[in-house]
Amino acid sequence: MKDAIIVKRYGDAFISLAKDTSGREKALEDVKNLKSIIRQNPDFIIFLESPAITLAEKNEFMDMLLRADFSIEFRNFLKLLLVKGRIDKLARIAEYVRATCSSENEVGALLKTAFPLDLDLIELVKKKLESRFQKKIKLYIDLDGSLLGGIQVVIGNTIIDGSLRRRLDELRGKLEMAR
Description:
The protein is of the alpha+beta class. It has helices at 2-20, 24-40, 43-49, 55-66, 72-83, 90-102, 119-133, 164-178, and strands spanning 106-113, 136-143, 150-155, 158-163.
């Protein structure tokens, strides 16, 4: 869970920076190109994670290797990951940025329910979520009997819990506090 939060924070920070400078399209291109480099040269990540190589040497290498095809913002972002010791999260951050930039106005949401729902009700939930988040929602449905009833929606780090399980847990907590 902690790694997911770190990935999201760094990814969102890079997207925000790129939006204001080189643009989302260039950010997406940089990420795709980097993923291609990593796929073709798995030693690239090993090199960046190696404690035997100094930070200055890694920065110099990245400037030399990435100067022609990558934006200065992206190169600086990679250097920031090195300085903060987060370079091991690079692949996940790159995937997060790719997914976020690719579907600029669309977000995935997981709808958990204890029982199958009618299509009309699913469509109503989807419309309400789109209205609330001001984004197009791609809804994934998961049947989860542990909810007992109601629904739970997970969008990124946001959880909307209208399940019977949550209500019973809250009631149990109130009763224990009353003792």
